[in-house]
Amino acid sequence: MVPNMPPTDRIRDLAGQGAPTVAAQRTRRRLRADQARQLADLLRHQLLTGGFPAGALPYETTLAAEYRVSRNTVRQALDLLRAEGLVERLPGVGTVVVAQKYRHGLDRLMGLAETLHEHGRVTNEVRTMGPVPAPAPVAGRLRVPPGTDVLYIERLRSLNGLPLSLDLTYIPLDIGTALLGCDLENTDVFRLLESLTGQPLGHADITLEAVNADAHSAAVLQAPRGAAVLMLERLTHLADGRPVDLEFIRFRGDRITMSGLLHRSL
């Protein structure tokens, strides 16, 4: 049930014999919009966690009764989800799920293919690969002198042919040179790094933020220019602490959702 949803039909002007004033009408519209956003959040969670396995949402009257809101509020909530590209209304059918978002965990150090293996085949289109002089910020993160050559890789990563992310990767050249002869189209870089170095990856520092897709990213990801993109910056270290993989990953915001399990520690 949607928490703390005030009944908008009780907002009246007591001095005006029950007729709603302009202020009351505005308040009612604002509260209905708040309710719609709250309901959209709950329905979105169910969509992302498989709460509607048949692919169709309950009827508007059913949702209104279940969440104790008006049908107008239900319609507004469904409009929000439709604007996100998650659902669509079909005549004679109702509201159906039209897009799936895939969960990407943030509490385990895994490559995209390892994370999404149960959903299908992840492939990588290697768009650019070769040595480049390390910009100062990259050199600092990888602990190499500025201007030192590092291996640069740009990949488009897709799931069952559906573009999910654009990855820009920097790797120290003493390790990266060996990657030039590897099958990067079908193998995660993480697995290759562990194989080439003979030791497991240890940990990663991550930063996650929401950005708008620039012209290049939008074209490669087949997304509208300015579309919401999740930018993950990840610096991965070997078990001995050496940084070996700096990535700037742009995920399509309408196809990936980030999740994790956090423990409180003070």
From TrEMBL:
It comes from the Bacteria. Keywords: DNA-binding, Transcription, Transcription regulation. Coiled coil: none annotated. GO terms for molecular function: DNA binding; DNA-binding transcription factor activity. Transmembrane segments: none annotated. It holds the Pfam family UTRA. One of its GO terms (biological process) is negative regulation of DNA-templated transcription. PANTHER family: GNTR-FAMILY TRANSCRIPTIONAL REGULATOR, MANNOSYL-D-GLYCERATE TRANSPORT/METABOLISM SYSTEM REPRESSOR MNGR-RELATED. This is GntR-family transcriptional regulator. It comes from Streptomyces lincolnensis.
